[in-house]
Specification:
The complex is a heterodimer of chains A (145) and B (123).
Chain A lengths: L8 H21 L3 H4 L5 E5 L3 E7 L8 E6 L3 E8 L8 E5 L4 E8 L10 E5 L2 E7 L15
Antiparallel strand pairs in A: 1-2, 2-8, 3-4, 4-6, 7-8
Chain B lengths: L4 E3 L3 H4 L8 E3 L3 E5 L3 E7 L8 E6 L2 E8 L9 E9 L9 E5 L2 E7 L15
The chains are: A alpha+beta (145), B mainly beta (123).
Chain lengths: 145, 123
């Protein structure tokens, strides 16, 4: 893919910064490590017109999910998953995380927050965030004199 | 329950699923037990019903899911976990459902091991 720039050094740097940011958020929010460990974080990639973000949210229902974009490029995903409740059951193994989840990612470019599309399918949230007009490539016309 | 559903950590088993490419990871699971059955939940985000393969063979239960890649240069992820199932489970009655990226397996116990209340009559 020509426009896929995820291996670009800047993108790598953004990834590192975002990991650091998530770690800081986790440390200061008092969120349990088990909740923040769920899934594999947020994957972000771009093409000419859009930024795409994907995150694993198995077992999360759409009405327990909250997605916001602040300041044009700060994407926040909040979700909650309840533990299976079986009154007379005995737990033998518990590896799946439950509770509140809070993920923040700074997008590499500004996006149009009013036109964000979100689809939740098979426990995966996929966001399509159109780049704001100023972040789209512009062709500069050169006048010859 | 320790022996009713026991994980098989054999490397050969984990790589044996035919046609696998990409990486294979172990999905997170929960196991609960009631008087009637064992319940297994597995997080398999990105797997649809057609990409799921659950097999019971020679006393072994294999869960396998293939996660399709959102775009071509991202590696395919396979979820796989193998359990040996004791005779306490009615293997012909195992059932599975998939919802919101969570696989639920019901493993009913055979009648003989279900707890029974014995009524005592006055002699």
């Amino acid at each position: 893919m020509f426009f896929d720039n995820r291996r670009d050094p800047m993108t790598v740097l953004w990834g590192d910064l975002n990991r650091l940011q998530n770690e800081m958020t986790r440390l200061f929010s008092g969120e349990t490590p088990r909740a923040s460990r769920s899934g594999s974080g947020i994957t972000v990639w771009t093409d000419e017109t859009n930024v795409y973000a994907e995150t694993d949210l198995p077992g999360v229902l759409a009405d327990k999910l909250d997605v916001t974009v602040k300041e044009g490029n700060i994407l926040t995903i909040q979700a909650e998953r309840e533990a299976p409740s079986h009154a007379d059951a005995v737990w033998h193994r518990q590896e799946r995380p439950f509770g509140k989840l809070h993920r923040v990612v700074t997008l590499p470019v500004m996006v149009d927050a009013d036109r964000v599309e979100a689809v939740l399918k098979n426990g995966v949230l996929r966001l399509t965030l159109p780049k704001s007009a100023s972040a789209q490539p512009h062709k500069i016309t050169i006048k010859s004199e | 329950m320790a022996d009713t559903l026991k994980e098989v950590n054999d490397k050969d088993t984990l790589t044996r699923h035919e046609g696998d490419e990409g990486v294979t990871i172990s999905p997170r699971i929960d196991i609960l037990e009631t008087d009637e059955e064992l319940l297994l939940f597995a997080d398999v985000p990105g797997v649809g019903p057609d990409d799921l393969d659950i097999r019971f063979e020679n006393g072994e239960l294999t869960l396998h899911g293939r996660r399709s890649s959102p775009h071509e240069d991202r590696v395919v992820t396979n979820y796989q976990r193998v359990f040996s199932v004791s005779r306490e489970v009615a293997s012909d009655k195992i059932s599975a459902s998939l919802k919101e990226g969570v696989l639920t397996l019901h493993l009913p116990k055979v009648e003989a091991v279900r707890p029974r209340r014995i009524s005592v009559h006055n002699g």
